[in-house]
């Protein structure tokens, strides 16, 4: 009982000690919210309602582009928004294949008004039409018929029984809706049918251009479609004529005007031009817009006009969202929605300021006078800087100011400042590439040489490898290498060349090895590849790859791979036990943790976890959990491994900690070699219940590894919680455990207090990964959580022991010191006076 | 030459309890081949044969031929040039499945240990071989070594069959018991407390009372008043 | 010798988790979980638009639900099985509930207990989700108090020596105070003697003490 009480108090003190204070909100953290690539958009007087490819409905402010509210619907992998209609309320239809949800949203607040599901008995291509409060669903069965059902949009009540309309022209992929018609192009003819009003009959009209025509929706004043052929389109009014205007496929009609974008080659400052013409009056106009450089090719999503003033919403190939005001052609705002899908993250220290860098060269001259003048001039500059308070983009003392370089799925690179609320410092767009990872070749520590980073990517069209070198601080390009072959593996070799540049070693799909830059030093390294269940280890020699080991994990799905962070340092070599003896850690830098799920006839699915030495292929440890289900998350750090999985038997998420020890004797204290195994590591394991659904897991990383470790777990509820490793560390069965041994008594369920949430009430949507980097300050780690949202903060697992407390009372200490000084002078004076008086007596 | 090894606990710590978690026992036959000449496309020659009769017990019959003079020379050269010694093991399991595994060690370490090597056969939870690794028990590596031929005669191989652990589960049972015990203890404790609020703290109460009385007696006026009261 | 092993990304083999798909199941086995949220009384004022900020997650977001203006929610298209339903709100904590739907479409709701999964404490269905409390994400800062300042060791360090150094010698030098101190000392000596005397008396004769006690009680009665 006392033990438990102890534990609870201890736990409370430890955990609450890491929470932040309310007045620290936003002081060193920031959050940026995103919505993804916009699919539909509708304007209202006060807001702009959009649905996106992330299956989100959101309301944006037309003035600033800020998100007023945002609702995340089902998983975008299976569900996509199908229809958006904004009248008084916003109506969405979202879903995919055979399951749909029809929802009504309150436009000012974003709360749900009504909702009903629709489940189809058979899959097909679905089309939706909304007229008044009548929702029409058209299910096109290719080549045979279509089924038209009318619902009441608010209740889901079927208004009219499903009509089966046998029409052979229903093709599915070349069909669109044009209220109230359902339109298809088939065999060089355009067919349409009124699906809203019963009793309508299919009509048809021949078109020129043959079978390679495509149809696009066109929301004109009269029911019309866009007939696209190659890169030009014609507006076809249903039951009317083909309009004579050649328009671009991205043409959009607002009121009676048709807007389209064109490249503007006349004015290099304004690369995009909006052309419009009125369908009724035929009046044409053209406006050049100052479209920001660095954004991808734009297209119009939606727009609204009030008299001559129009607002156009543009989306671009890099998913950026831009609002343009006409007739000025001014860009109101831009949202970089590419950041909603980040592939890779790296943290970069800023370079030292020019002033500090100049100190390096200060003493190279022999001339005393020039040295003296230089000294004086730098010092005056430093003084000026100090007085003016300008720091700019230079390194701070504690390495807390960093540039975060992120590579996004659309191939756009961003440099983000950790301070200043995550403002974007630079962007660089690489068209047609799929980024894979960022590799750091040189950090900013080697002044005056600038930092260098390489983006490893894949060409979207050819599949070949792409290497793009750039300066991570300024975003300047240092050269792009398009390889003719696919990349199998690429990594940064540890040995620097004379310019402190670490070479990137690229292994092609044909096992050829190339080094970038080519003059880079040759290196011996061990690499491994995983092809389904076959794990193959190679030794990289100057003349190529040599297979050295292999494992066959059997028929299974690989669900997780984790290795120790390359920069991680292990400060303490062992764990001190209660009798003051040391249990040495088994710290193997070459360990690879693998997790697989395999089907089993008896135990449903089985989770296997392997710890494999990457040099010898020796399976150091393996374990299995029966009736286990994903998602599996692995974290490997120091001498331990933590993984989570879902236990189907008990229907709960479990978290397992595995720790490796050498024992009471350290086999080789100076160097580690995977080849020299004197004894098998002793394995300690412990399992716990995690009362949350983890979606991502990471561990804090500090400069020298002295600070305690915290696990950072991103949960499905949108919080990132910190769990002290001490809470998970396996206990020694036969040893006392209490505060004296700095050990928590075992509790089967890990408590997650709300104070442990590092993002406090800033819920993060669809967390994908948690990137961690050490600060120069030992106590502190940088954390960037990315997913749909971006959240940056700093964590200090052992509190900021190397910094004065933020609420440290500077005034008090000054007051006390002044008081003491004054007191000593006063007493001196009084003592002198007394001595004088006594002398007179 | 036949030799049955019953797993001496040499430098390895083998937990005997692990041997029993296989659901189905099986056997495996491992054909060992080694490569003694480094080349881009290695040529493997036969080294021996290992039969593991029971994967559950891990008993192995090791049958290896003594090294020929040529092989000894090749091995010595490998060791002297600090090159790698590679083996290829072809595992035939009881269900007839055949798998080939590679393993590489430093030749000088093998030579320095006088051909005393360990073969680790890792199994997954079903008893299927997932990997075969050759190891040398040593606490340090070497950078090439010249070993006389007289020490390179015969492989003395120890085979270790390594099973997959059964993953731990949260120890809820003892926790529940502990909670129940605490609950009981608390209940009992509360009853006791109810009975003896006075009895429990008499040692604190009595001195306080005495002190109070003494101080009141020390006050002559109060004492007089008291006396007066008694007189009435 | 230290071997370095580059631990690499897998370009060729993307890791993907096979999520359970219910596409093939007959849709007759689809149910809806219903319930209602009862916010705390101060909810309306602190979060005017709390319905829009509240979400329902079933099995960590496998199925989701939104809250209507009146606080009710429905999670559609749920096949039979056992689910944990959570109410997510950034400001308030709700207790999760396990909802079980059997193959006949019968519902049962119970408290979530991960430690003893077999223990059943039923809760009413349709669900009534009450906010437990406002979530405390933040640590409270200590308030500045004058007593803290006075009892601060540094302040004590400054004040006490001052008192000792400045006042004591003065007092000792003053002949009158010296006398007074002597007096006080003698007085206390006398009193101490008196006290010990009385104590010994008291110990010797407990009866006298009792006599003393009784009148006290009687006096109280009056």
UniProtKB/TrEMBL annotation, chain A:
Major subcellular location class: endoplasmic reticulum
Membrane disposition: Single-pass type I membrane protein
Transmembrane stretches, start-end: 812-831
Signal peptide region: 1-19
UniProt keyword rRNA-binding, yes or no: no
Pfam families with a match to the protein in the record: Beta-prop_EMC1_N (PF25293), EMC1_C (PF07774)
Superkingdom as given in the UniProt entry: Eukaryota
Family: Belongs to the EMC1 family.
The protein's name in its UniProt record: ER membrane protein complex subunit 1
Organism: Tribolium castaneum (Red flour beetle)
Upper lineage: Eukaryota, Metazoa, Ecdysozoa, Arthropoda, Hexapoda
Automatic annotation (TrEMBL), chain B:
Keyword Transmembrane found: yes
Family matches, as Pfam families: ECM10
Superkingdom classification of source: Eukaryota
Topology in the lipid bilayer: Single-pass type I membrane protein
Leader sequence residues: 1-19
Cellular component GO terms, alphabetical: EMC complex
Keywords associated with the record: Endoplasmic reticulum, Membrane, Signal, Transmembrane, Transmembrane helix
Subcellular locations according to the entry: Endoplasmic reticulum membrane
Family: Belongs to the EMC10 family.
Protein name: ER membrane protein complex subunit 10
Record gene name: AUGUSTUS-3.0.2_00766
TrEMBL record, chain C:
InterPro entries assigned: Beta_sandwich_EMC7 (IPR019008), Carb-bd-like_fold (IPR013784), EMC7 (IPR039163)
Keywords tagged on the record: Membrane, Signal, Transmembrane, Transmembrane helix
Membrane topology: Single-pass membrane protein
GO molecular function: carbohydrate binding
Annotated spans, Disordered: 201-222
Transmembrane region(s): 149-169
Residues in the signal sequence: 1-20
Record domain ER membrane protein complex subunit 7 beta-sandwich: where: 47-157
Compartments, record wording: Membrane
Main location: membrane
Keyword Signal included in the entry's annotation: yes
GO terms for cellular component: EMC complex
Superkingdom, taxonomy of origin: Eukaryota
Presence of the UniProt keyword Signal in the record: yes
Family named by the database record: Belongs to the EMC7 family.
PANTHER family: ER MEMBRANE PROTEIN COMPLEX SUBUNIT 7 (PTHR13605)
Record's protein name: ER membrane protein complex subunit 7 homolog-like Protein
Species of origin: Tribolium castaneum (Red flour beetle)
Higher taxonomy: Eukaryota, Metazoa, Ecdysozoa, Arthropoda, Hexapoda
């Amino acid at each position: 009982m006392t033990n438990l009480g102890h534990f609870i108090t201890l736990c409370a003190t430890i955990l609450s000690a890491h929470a932040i204070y309310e007045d620290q909100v936003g002081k060193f953290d920031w959050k940026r919210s995103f919505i993804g690539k916009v699919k539909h958009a509708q304007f209202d007087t006060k807001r702009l309602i959009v649905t996106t490819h992330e299956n989100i409905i959101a309301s944006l402010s037309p003035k600033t582009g800020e998100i007023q509210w945002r609702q995340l619907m089902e998983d975008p992998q299976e569900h996509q928004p199908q229809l958006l209609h904004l009248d008084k309320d916003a109506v969405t239809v979202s879903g995919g294949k055979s399951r749909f949800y029809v929802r009504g949203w309150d436009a000012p607040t974003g709360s749900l008004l009504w909702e009903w599901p629709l489940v189809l008995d058979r899959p097909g291509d679905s089309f939706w039409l909304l007229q008044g409060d009548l929702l029409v669903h058209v299910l096109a069965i290719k080549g045979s018929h279509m089924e038209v059902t009318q619902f009441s949009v608010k209740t889901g009540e079927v208004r009219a029984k499903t009509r089966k309309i046998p029409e052979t022209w229903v093709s599915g992929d070349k069909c669109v809706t044009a209220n109230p018609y359902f339109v298809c192009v088939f065999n060089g003819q355009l067919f349409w049918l009124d699906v809203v009003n019963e009793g309508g009959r299919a009509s048809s009209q021949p078109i020129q251009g043959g079978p390679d025509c495509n149809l696009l929706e066109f929301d004109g004043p009269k029911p019309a479609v866009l007939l696209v052929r190659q890169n030009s389109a014609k507006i076809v009014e249903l039951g009317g004529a083909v309009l004579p205007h050649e328009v671009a496929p991205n043409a959009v009609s607002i009121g009676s005007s048709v807007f389209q974008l064109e490249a503007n080659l006349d004015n290099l400052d304004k690369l995009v031009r909006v052309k419009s013409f009125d369908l009724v009056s035929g009046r044409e106009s053209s406006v050049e817009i100052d479209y920001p450089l660095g954004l991808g090719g734009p297209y119009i999503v939606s727009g609204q006009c009030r008299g001559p003033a129009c607002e156009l919403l543009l989306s671009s190939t890099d998913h950026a969202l831009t609002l343009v005001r006409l007739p000025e052609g001014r860009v109101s705002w831009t949202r970089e929605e590419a950041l909603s899908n980040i592939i890779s993250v790296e943290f970069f220290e800023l370079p030292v300021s020019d002033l500090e860098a100049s100190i390096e060269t200060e003493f190279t001259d022999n001339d005393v006078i020039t040295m003296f003048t230089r000294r004086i001039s730098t010092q005056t500059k430093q003084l000026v800087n100090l007085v003016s308070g300008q720091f700019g983009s230079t390194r701070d003392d504690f390495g807390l100011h960093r540039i975060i370089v992120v590579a996004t799925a659309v191939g756009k690179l961003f440099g983000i400042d950790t301070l200043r609320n995550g403002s974007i410092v630079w962007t660089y767009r690489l068209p047609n590439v799929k980024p894979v990872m960022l590799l750091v070749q040189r950090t900013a520590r080697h002044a005056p040489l600038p930092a260098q980073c390489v983006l490893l990517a894949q060409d979207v069209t050819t599949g070949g490898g792409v290497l793009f070198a750039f300066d991570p601080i300024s975003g300047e390009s240092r050269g792009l290498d398009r390889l003719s072959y696919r990349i199998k593996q690429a990594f940064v070799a540890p040995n620097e060349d004379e310019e402190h540049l670490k070479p990137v070693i690229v292994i092609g799909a044909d096992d050829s090895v190339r080094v970038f830059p080519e003059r880079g030093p040759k290196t011996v390294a061990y690499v491994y590849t995983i092809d389904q269940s076959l794990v193959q280890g190679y030794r990289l020699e100057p003349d190529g790859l040599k297979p050295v080991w292999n494992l066959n994990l059997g028929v299974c799905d690989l669900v997780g791979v984790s290795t120790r962070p390359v920069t991680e340092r292990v400060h303490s070599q062992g764990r001190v036990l209660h009798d003051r003896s040391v249990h040495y850690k088994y710290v193997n830098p070459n360990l690879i943790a693998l997790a697989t799920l395999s089907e089993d006839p008896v135990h449903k699915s089985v989770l296997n976890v392997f710890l494999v030495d990457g040099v010898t292929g020796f399976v150091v440890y393996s374990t299995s959990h029966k009736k286990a289900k994903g998602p599996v998350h692995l974290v490997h750090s120091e001498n331990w491994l933590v993984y989570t999985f879902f236990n189907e038997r008990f229907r709960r998420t479990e978290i397992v900690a595995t720790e490796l020890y050498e024992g009471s004797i350290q086999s080789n204290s100076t160097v580690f070699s995977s080849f020299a195994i004197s004894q098998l590591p002793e394995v300690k394991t412990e399992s716990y219940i995690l009362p949350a659904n983890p979606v991502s897991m990471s561990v804090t990383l500090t400069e020298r590894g002295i600070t305690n470790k915290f696990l950072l777990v991103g949960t499905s509820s949108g919080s990132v919680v910190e769990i002290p490793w001490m809470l998970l560390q396996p206990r020694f069965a036969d040893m006392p455990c209490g505060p004296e041994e700095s050990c928590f008594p075992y509790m089967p369920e890990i408590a997650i207090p709300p104070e442990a949430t590092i993002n406090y009430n800033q819920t993060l949507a669809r967390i994908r990964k948690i990137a961690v980097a050490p600060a120069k300050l030992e106590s502190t780690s940088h954390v960037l959580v990315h997913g749909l949202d971006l959240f940056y903060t700093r964590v200090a697992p052992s509190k900021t022991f190397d910094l004065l407390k933020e609420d440290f009372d500077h005034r008090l200490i000054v007051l006390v010191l002044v008081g003491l000084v004054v007191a000593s002078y006063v007493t001196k004076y009084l003592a002198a006076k007394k001595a004088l008086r006594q002398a007179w007596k | 030459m036949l030799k049955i090894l019953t797993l001496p606990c040499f430098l390895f710590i083998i937990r005997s309890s692990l041997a029993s978690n296989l659901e189905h026992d099986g056997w495996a036959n491992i054909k060992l081949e080694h490569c003694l000449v480094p080349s881009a496309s290695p040529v493997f020659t036969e080294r021996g044969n290992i039969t593991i009769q029971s994967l559950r017990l891990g008993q192995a019959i090791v049958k290896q031929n003594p090294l020929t003079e040529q092989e000894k020379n090749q091995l010595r050269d490998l060791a002297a040039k600090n090159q790698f010694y590679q083996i290829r093991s072809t595992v035939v399991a009881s269900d007839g499945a055949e798998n080939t595994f590679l393993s590489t060690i430093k030749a000088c370490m093998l030579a320095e240990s006088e051909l005393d090597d360990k073969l680790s056969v890792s199994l997954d939870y079903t008893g299927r071989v997932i990997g075969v690794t050759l190891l040398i028990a040593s606490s340090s590596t070497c950078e090439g070594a010249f070993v006389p031929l007289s020490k390179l005669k015969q492989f003395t191989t120890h085979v270790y069959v390594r099973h997959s652990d059964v993953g731990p589960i949260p120890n809820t049972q003892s926790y529940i018991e502990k909670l129940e015990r605490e609950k009981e203890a608390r209940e009992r404790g509360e009853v006791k407390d109810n009975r003896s609020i006075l009895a429990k703290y008499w040692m604190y109460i009595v001195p306080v009372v005495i002190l109070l009385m003494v101080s009141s007696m020390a006050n002559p006026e109060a004492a007089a008043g008291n006396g007066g009261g008694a007189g009435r | 010798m230290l071997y370095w092993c580059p631990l690499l990304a897998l370009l060729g083999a993307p890791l993907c988790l096979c999520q359970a798909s219910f596409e093939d199941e007959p849709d007759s086995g689809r149910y809806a979980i219903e319930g209602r949220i009862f916010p705390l009384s101060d909810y309306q004022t602190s979060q005017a638009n709390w319905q829009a900020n509240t979400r329902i997650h079933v099995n960590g977001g496998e199925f989701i639900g939104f809250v209507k203006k009146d606080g009710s929610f429905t999670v559609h298209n749920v096949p039979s099985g056992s689910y944990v339903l959570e109410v997510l709100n950034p400001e308030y904590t709700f207790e999760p509930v396990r909802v079980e739907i059997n193959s006949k479409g019968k519902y049962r709701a119970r408290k979530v207990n991960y430690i003893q999964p077999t223990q059943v404490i039923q809760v009413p269905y349709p669900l009534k989700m009450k906010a437990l409390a406002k979530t405390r994400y933040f640590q409270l800062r200590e308030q500045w108090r004058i007593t803290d300042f006075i009892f601060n060791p540094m302040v004590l360090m400054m004040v006490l020596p001052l008192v000792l150094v400045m006042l004591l010698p003065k007092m000792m030098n003053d002949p009158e105070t010296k006398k007074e101190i002597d007096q006080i000392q003698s007085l206390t000596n006398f009193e101490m003697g008196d006290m010990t005397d009385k104590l010994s008396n008291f110990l010797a004769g407990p009866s006298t003490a009792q006599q003393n006690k009784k009148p006290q009680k009687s006096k109280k009665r009056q």
